[in-house]
Design goal:
Layout lengths: L1 H135 L4 H127 L51 H9 L11 E2 L3 E2 L1 H10 L9 H4 L4 E3 L9 E4 L2 E7 L2 E7 L3 E6 L5 E6 L2
Antiparallel strand pairs: 1-2, 3-8, 4-5, 4-8, 5-6, 6-7
Length: 429
């Protein structure tokens, strides 16, 4: 009876240990399952946040490229505006000087005309007889001839001076008209540059505002990612703690079962009286926490260098052929925005149409032509190269000369290549 009582007590202890372990495991399993669910959810959210961050960074990279391109365009425009402003100042000074020269020439012409009138008036008032008397009053033939020659020289002198002054007045007046036209065209170009500057600055402001919006989105996504990482770390800590508790509970249950079995064995002097498994298999399944730290790869991306010079067209077209063809249209009119070599073209329209004859496609923009082909120095310029100025472009003929659609005043003509400040020389052949 006593042995049976001890056996029942040991069995009860073992049963209590198993039940306690089972209940503890159930609670731990519930906590761990919840922690794993929270972790899996946070990991999915972190993946989504990282995808969003990468997408925003790609957009930022693309937008930054656009901003850099517009910045470079604005810098080039400001350089051209500075050059044009200097040339406009020089043109204003030239116009002031020509105006003074014209006034002086007109005064000289008037003085000569007045002097000539006085001599004519004097001869008229004295009458032809006085002149004849002066001539006939000569003592000899030599004096006679000298007096006749003197009268003739006075007349010719007056005539030559008057014609000379009239020619000078005409030339200076024409020069003044040309300078006034060129100045007006430069002022129109200056206004166009100002409009381009406003447009570029507006585009840049809009793009920088968009970049600021991306910065805010990126900061928000990065903050969310940091929060998800914190959640994952917290759930990993919970899982680890629950695993520790589960292992501790399992060890306690094993120890209790072992103690109960030892007590049961000690109470049975005849050996093993209780058959079967008293402790049962309390199958403990300890789940190991997945400690996924996640490999975050830095996507640096390759931002292409771009920049540099555009490659040569390598057309095989002779520069002298281009120049000879272009010179056929010298004398034809200049028309703003025009592309007709016969009816009228502006500077870039003239260049575009000339090169189109040889199968070479160029833009109808003096600013865009500054980026075509490859850059060469003026010292190495060859016939057929493009000579680019601020807001103007011409075709190099060689020997320091250009052919171009210059202005409404002179139309398509040839000039010295250095008549204005050269911005760059581009080779497209």
């Amino acid at each position: 009876m006593k042995n049976n009582s001890v056996h029942r007590k040991a069995t009860a202890l073992m049963l209590a240990a198993v039940l306690g372990f089972t209940g503890s495991q159930s609670v731990l399993a519930g906590n761990m399952s919840k922690a794993k669910d929270e972790k899996a959810k946070a990991e999915q959210n972190l993946d989504n946040a990282n995808d969003e961050i990468e997408a925003i960074e790609r957009k930022q990279s693309q937008l930054q490229g656009e901003i850099d391109a517009k910045d470079a365009e604005l810098v080039n425009l400001l350089v051209n505006m500075g050059i044009l402003e200097d040339e406009l100042d020089a043109k204003s000074q030239q116009l002031d000087q020509v105006t003074v020269e014209l006034k002086d020439a007109q005064v000289s012409e008037q003085k000569q005309y007045d002097a000539m009138k006085k001599r004519i008036q004097f001869m008229y008032e004295r009458g032809d007889g006085a002149m004849v008397e002066a001539i006939l009053g000569s003592e000899d033939m030599s004096e006679f001839l000298n007096r006749v020659e003197y009268v003739s020289e006075i007349y010719n002198y007056d005539r030559r001076l008057l014609v000379q002054y009239q020619t000078t007045v005409k030339q200076v007046a024409e020069l003044k008209s040309t300078v006034e036209t060129e100045k007006a065209e430069m002022e129109a170009m200056q206004e166009e540059y100002a409009l381009q500057q406003d447009a570029l600055e507006n585009v840049l402001a809009e793009k920088r505002s968009q970049m600021g919006s991306y910065d805010n989105q990126l900061a928000s996504a990065q903050a969310a990612a940091a929060a998800y990482k914190q959640t994952i770390a917290e759930q990993n800590a919970i899982i680890k703690e629950e695993e520790r508790k589960a292992k501790e509970a399992e060890e306690k249950a094993k120890a209790a079962a072992k103690a109960a079995a030892s007590q049961n064995n000690g109470s049975n002097n005849s050996g093993n009286t209780g058959g079967g498994d008293t402790g049962g298999n309390a199958g403990s399944s300890s789940e190991s926490a997945d400690n996924n730290s996640g490999n975050t790869s830095d996507n640096t991306g390759n931002t292409g260098g771009g920049g540099g010079e555009n490659p040569s067209y390598s057309t095989g077209v002779s520069g002298s052929d281009v120049v000879n063809y272009a010179c056929q249209f010298v004398g034809n009119p200049y028309v703003w925005g025009g592309t007709s070599l016969t009816n009228g073209a502006d500077c870039s329209g003239f260049v575009m149409s000339v090169f189109a004859k040889f199968g070479i496609s160029l833009p109808h923009s003096s600013a865009a032509l500054q980026g075509c082909g490859k850059a060469v120095s003026y010292a190495n310029a060859q016939p057929g190269d493009l000579i680019c100025y601020s807001g103007h472009v011409a075709i190099y003929m060689g020997g320091g000369r250009i052919v171009h659609a210059q202005s409404t005043a002179v139309g398509i003509t040839t000039s010295s290549a250095t008549y204005r400040t050269i911005v760059c020389v581009r080779r497209v052949l």
